[in-house]
Amino acid sequence: MANDMQSIKRRIKSVESTKKITKAMQLVATSKLRKARNQMDELRPYYSKIQEVVGEILESNKGMVDSPYLKDNQTGKNIYIIVTSSLGLCGGYNANVIKTMVECLKPEDEIYMIGNKGASYLTHHHIDFHSQYLDLNSTLEFKDVIRLVQELTQRYQNHEIASIQMIYTKFINNLTFQPYVMKLLPVDTKDFEMKYLTHKATIFEPNPQTVLNDLIPMYLQSVIYGYLVESVTSENASRRTSMENATDNAEDLIEELLLKYNQARQSAITNEISEIVAGANAQ
């Protein structure tokens, strides 16, 4: 009985240590989530305005604008930019992204991977990928996004790429986030139809096509960066939820172990009293 009590005591101490770790990680994730949400909210007006201008040009000059970014390339590979996390303990965040990736990818597709968890999965399954932007989800350097867009748009204009799509995790609220596949190139004019059309007379200098050709790379930069920040926000929200659940489970387990300990202790006391009474009666 004494051994059982000591074993339960050690388990309680072990669970309490784990609880301290999960609680600390929950607080860190909460802080990072707040910071990422603020950054995401600050970015939205910027890329929303660029999207609005692109939509206005396409809608008000329908059929008159001829841009390489609007044409479907019949040759070349499909490119996927995939955002996972570089750290674990974030629930089903990575599993959901990888599941979506497996559903979308074909053997001939090309992958630009962001995040070590996705890279580990691809390496384990012997799938080739571009790794030069692997740490972009940690650094969030906009200059690296500019470099990525320059590389991809140049390859797209050279007809090496048929399409560019991005798999990221869409942030809905602190408890809801889901993987999403967004087509970046070619720009689908249907996404802008009647969406941003205004009744203002807009003059584009030198002409709508030149403005659009310069604007679409800016649009891609802002959208990719925005989706990247959104994925990081979802990652921290998922980790905060997971650590909160782990902390709650630890508290429940401690209560259960304390109950078992008290029952064992009470049983030991009862046995001792019974032995004392039996000894006294024997005398």
Total DSSP helices: 6
Q: Tell me the CATH architecture.
A: 3-Layer(aba) Sandwich
Strand percentage: 5-15%
Give the uncertain stretches in residue-range form.
none
Coiled coil: 240-267
Protein name: ATP synthase gamma chain
Function: Produces ATP from ADP in the presence of a proton gradient across the membrane. The gamma chain is believed to be important in regulating ATPase activity and the flow of protons through the CF(0) complex.
Family: Belongs to the ATPase gamma chain family.
Detailed description of the structure:
The chain is an alpha/beta fold and 283 residues long. It has a single domain, classed as ATP synthase, F1 complex, gamma subunit (Pyruvate Kinase, Chain: A, domain 1, 3-Layer(aba) Sandwich). It is 62% helix and 12% strand. The protein has a four-stranded mixed sheet. Helix 1 packs antiparallel against helix 6 (208-282). The longest helix has 75 residues, at 208-282. The chain is elongated and about 115 Å long.
